[in-house]
Amino acid sequence: MSLPASGPSADTEILSWNASALSSAIHSREVSCREVMAAYLGHVDRVNPRVNAIISRVSDEMLLAQAEACDRELSQGHSRGWLHGVPQAIKDLSPTRDIPTSMGSPLFAGKTPADDGLMVKRMRDAGAIFIGKTNTPEFGLGSQTYNSVFGATGNAYDHGLCAGGSSGGAAVALAMRMLPVADGSDMMGSLRNPAAYNNVYGLRPSFGRVPYGPAFDVFGHQLATEGPMARSVADLAQLLAIQAGADPSQPLSLQDDPAAFARFAQESSNTRAAKGMRIGWVGDWNGYLPMEAGVLDVCKGALNVFSGMGAEVEPLIPDFSPQRLWQSWLVLRQWAVAGKLASTWSNPDTRQALKPEAQWEIEQGMQRSALEVHEANVSRSAWYASLLKLFERFDVLALPSAQTFAFDVHTPWPKEVGGRSMDTYHRWMEVVIPGSLSGCPVISIPAGFNQQGKAMGLQLIAPPRQELELLRYAAAFEAAGPEWLAQEPDWR
User: Fold this and answer.
1) Catalytic residue among 20, 32, 91, 436
2) Banded pLDDT at 219 (limits 50, 70, 90)
3) For this structure, is 343 an active site residue?
4) Is 79 among the residues known to form the active site?
5) Residue 348, domain member (yes or no)
6) In the predicted model, what is the mean pLDDT of the chain?
7) CA-CA distance, 24 to 45, in Å (whole number)?
8) Would you put residue 283 in left (φ > 0), alpha (ψ -120 to 50) or beta?
9) Is 143 designated active site?
10) Is residue 365 classed as helix, strand or coil in its secondary structure?
């Protein structure tokens, strides 16, 4: 890397680096943390008004002062970690002790939590400087990033289209190079759908890999998890290494050493990891899942990349009722959402501030019985057992990351997909629930673009706790260099 002395060309060079290259340049003193911060803040000022991805901005004066403090630490031989001096913006669902966490809700607009969330603290301790938050739908409900507090976030490639969600702001900020790497969270595809729509990588870790806290319930709710998004697989692994790791406050968190992910990021990737790889292509589950025309074709193009590296791709129809899976999901999601928001719904003064989809979700959850929740967990357990048998034959299962391409940014959610009506506000994302309910690691890799220039992703579901293998497969895909990986949005 060679950086011009100063000016717009220097800023463009800084912004062109992925997070690993940026971290290396900072630690080698090739560029100062202040220069990096100034470049990013100027870029956010120019670009963010187009897409509305970053919200709740911290003042430039305060951020530049934090960057200068990071420079002084480096001059004294001290580094906080891989993110030392690196600008970040945290998803607006995760608590930040010095920036409002509005969760896209007018009920929490401008309110600042007392403490950082566990993942946020880990990123801060690793040296990240938080410039603001990234936009999300109200309480993260729905895969379309819009809310009444900050408005909608536009797609990186076509600002008139939606960003996906609920980590839509994170994905767009990443693709538009307003952030070098980004955090997100995933209950119903919220790391995968926006990654797909913005041609980046999103990883939903195994349940317990990235423990969430603080939380009132540390045993029951097992649907959502935080995780990383990145423009490269190495960056994805490096951020996961920071986010992951056991914590005594979270009794179900995994004990594995997260340093393994950092070591992986330093390995030189090649295509050999895919040779002999066995992929079970679920596709549209034998027609059960409605798909917009072109989605399956784009994903098959990504599968062809794996085939070209020596992988075996076999069509697969899981021996499990997808309708049973959907019913399990409905009950568990409604139960979880109602448990979190029932008190808000019960108060007439606050209920009216909830969007209709949130009210519906809570109302449904409050009608569920304990037996229904038990039966839903039994179905989920049966699906996990079925998956274990499939993983005796396959290394990963593959599905599209969404059932439709990005749609108009002013449309709350698609009422129809592939000629079929959607009976709930999230039915159009049913394709993600096999991964969500499994608790297994799932990655969305960029699958390419359709003829209209809309991006799509390919989900790969790996066996339980096999993030490293999943990252190796993704790195092999990246090393194969499909041309769409270099197809960037207009971020300059």
Assistant:
1) 91
2) very high
3) no
4) no
5) no
6) 96
7) 25
8) left
9) no
10) helix
